[in-house]
Structure formats: structure tokens, C-alpha cells
Design a protein that fits this description.
By secondary structure, the protein is of the alpha/beta class. It is built from 4 helices and 38 strands.
Length: about 350
């Protein structure tokens, strides 16, 4: 594709020879003739002098003799360029001979059902959705259009997925919530989990992630939210739009997480609390209580990020500080005796 054709698709300004042809996107070190590269991090600017790429995506104000596509967010433009130049191959529509599809299930136009897929009674699968091998949809599942469920995904009874949802390998949507009641003898009785999970449009669910169904109503994942691998979402949790949860985040039941929240890796969130819009929690933060909108928290228990940084700088000095305090206390006691 010529740069002059690609520029408007990326909402970028063309600088230099628009007749240059590019066929794929490559990293700045690996790129060769016919490749489009990008610079989104200032540390790579010096590599513009040595790259063999035919053209580059970059921010305004950066000078290079290479033909360029100039835009405010090169990283986002790179993502779009990959989709345009190297669109992913989609399997042909149809149902594999080994798949089991219930007689009353409804499949939209262009749906692909792979080998050994099971589609339960009363399921609805939207147009152009892809079910990779060994996907299992329990009875009554509804999936929107243009979704892709990778191999080993399981979606349990009655759960609903919107349009353009991606679910990576081995994820489970609608597993039973962790609910038990203890009797007088200390034994646990299972609380029936009769609710569902609702996943809104444009959500991505990472590999081996589990989203528990609610006991009575619903667990809901808001539009555009991205869940990394090995994330655990407890029953009756509500997550707002455009929120990001990194690997091994755990959210306990009945918690409400706002819009545009970022929880970094291994953040743990207690149950029955509220995290406001725009909150950021750094890696391994433990959140035991409500967090007001817009805060940046760290540590266990969660503190304001700046307070945590100051505190963590002191931790290694605590033994020496304790020794000094004890010595000062001893000296004060001697002065009192005098």
C-alpha cells in the first residue's frame, strides 16, 4: 500500500514521498525495504539514522529524511497499521463435522464453529463470530457479532457476551462464585450461584482468566475493558468501561470498579468495596477499602503512591532506627533518675 493511501486511514499527516510502498510493519531494528516502522519512545530516536525501513510513523517535531506518517499517538497508529497491512486470517464460515450444535441453537451469518466445539441448547451466536476448537457454550449462552473465542474457552449457562469480544485460550466465563455458608458444626454449605456474567462490547479476556457468575443477579464487565491472563473476578463484581486489569489481579465478590481504572500486576482487591473512576494501583498493591476517584495508590495496605514511595525507602532502615530509639529511651530513663 502506498503511504499516500495509508495516511488518511491512520489519521496521520504524510511527510515526504507518498508513492513509497509498504507491505508490513516491523520494529526499527528489524525493518528492511518495504517495511513501515514506528517510534513511540524517545530512546529509539537515534535509530532513525540507521534503520533500513522505507518509512516511519512518528510524533510531530521529529526530523528524519525518511518518508513519514506524523501523528500524535504513534503507538496507536502502529496498532492500526498492523491491522490494515497484515489483517489476521479468519477461518471460513461453517460448522466442523466433529462439532455438536444443539438443534435449537441459532448461528448468525458467517459463523465459524471449529472442531469439537459444543454449542448448547438455546444458544445464540452472532454474525461472523469464530469459535475455535474445543470451545464449550453451555445452554442459553448469547454471543454477539464479530467475536472470537479461542480454543478451550468455556462460557457457562445463560452468560452474555457483546459484540467484538475476544476471549483467549482457557478462560472460563460464568464459573460458580465462591459462596459458602458455615453451619454450627463448622461445615460449609454451598450457596447456589444462579446469576450470570454480562461482558459488554469490545472487551478482551486473557488466557486462563476466570469470571465468576453472580449468586443472584449479574457480574458485569464494562465496554472496552481489558483483562490480562490469570485474572480472577469474583461474583457480583461490576467493572466500568475502559478499565485495565493486568496479570494475576484478583477482585473479590461484590466490589464495584469504576471507569478507566488501572490495576497493575498482582493487585488484590477485597470484597464489597468501591474503587472510583480513574484510580491507578501499582503492582502488588493490596486494597482493603474504598478508593476515591483519581487516586494513585501503592503498597499493602494501599497508600497514596508518594507516601508509599517515601515509606518503602525507610523500610530497610527500620532495624537501625529501632536500635537508636531504644538507646534514646534508655538515655531518657537515666536522665529521669538523676
Amino acid at each position: 500500500m502506498r503511504l499516500s493511501e495509508l495516511a488518511p486511514k491512520l489519521n496521520a499527516t504524510l511527510r515526504g514521498d507518498g508513492s513509497i510502498e509498504v507491505a508490513r510493519v516491523a520494529g526499527i531494528d528489524e525493518a528492511g525495504p518495504g517495511d513501515l516502522t514506528f517510534v513511540s519512545n524517545p530512546r529509539y530516536l537515534t535509530k532513525l539514522a540507521t534503520t533500513r525501513a522505507s518509512a516511519v510513523i512518528l510524533s510531530p517535531g521529529i526530523d528524519t529524511p525518511l518518508p513519514s506518517l506524523v501523528c500524535g499517538n504513534p503507538y496507536l497508529a502502529f496498532a492500526h497499521a498492523v491491522t490494515i497491512l497484515e489483517p489476521p486470517a479468519r477461518p471460513a464460515p461453517g460448522v466442523h463435522a466433529t462439532a455438536q450444535v444443539a438443534p435449537d441453537a441459532v448461528l448468525g451469518d458467517g459463523v465459524h464453529v471449529g472442531a469439537y466445539v459444543v454449542v448448547g441448547a438455546g444458544c445464540r451466536v452472532g454474525a461472523r463470530t469464530v469459535l475455535r476448537p474445543h470451545v464449550v457454550l453451555y445452554d442459553g449462552v448469547a454471543i454477539g457479532a464479530d467475536c472470537e473465542l479461542h480454543s478451550g474457552v468455556q462460557v457457562r449457562d445463560g452468560c452474555r457476551l457483546g459484540d467484538r469480544v475476544i476471549v483467549q485460550n482457557g478462560a472460563v466465563i460464568g464459573s460458580d462464585g465462591f459462596g459458602f455458608a458455615k453451619d454450627e458444626a463448622g461445615r460449609y454449605a454451598k450457596i447456589p450461584q444462579r446469576g450470570i456474567v454480562v461482558v459488554e462490547d469490545d472487551v478482551e479476556v486473557g488466557a486462563l482468566t476466570a469470571i465468576d457468575r453472580a449468586a443472584l443477579n449479574e457480574t458485569r464487565i464494562g465496554r472496552g475493558t481489558k483483562l490480562d491472563n490469570l485474572v480472577q473476578i469474583g461474583h457480583s463484581v461490576t467493572i466500568g468501561e475502559d478499565t485495565v486489569l493486568a496479570g494475576q489481579v484478583g477482585v473479590a465478590g461484590s466490589t464495584k470498579i469504576g471507569r478507566r481504572v488501572t490495576l497493575a500486576g498482582q493487585v488484590g482487591v477485597a470484597g464489597h468495596l468501591t474503587i472510583g473512576d480513574g484510580v491507578i494501583a501499582s503492582a502488588q498493591t493490596g486494597i482493603p477499602g474504598d478508593v476515591e476517584a483519581g487516586r494513585f495508590v501503592s503498597g499493602t495496605p494501599a497508600l497514596d503512591n508518594r507516601a508509599w514511595l517515601k515509606s518503602s525507602a525507610v523500610f530497610s532502615k527500620l532495624p537501625e532506627l529501632q536500635k537508636r530509639v531504644r538507646e534514646l529511651e534508655r538515655q531518657i530513663e537515666e536522665l529521669k533518675k538523676r
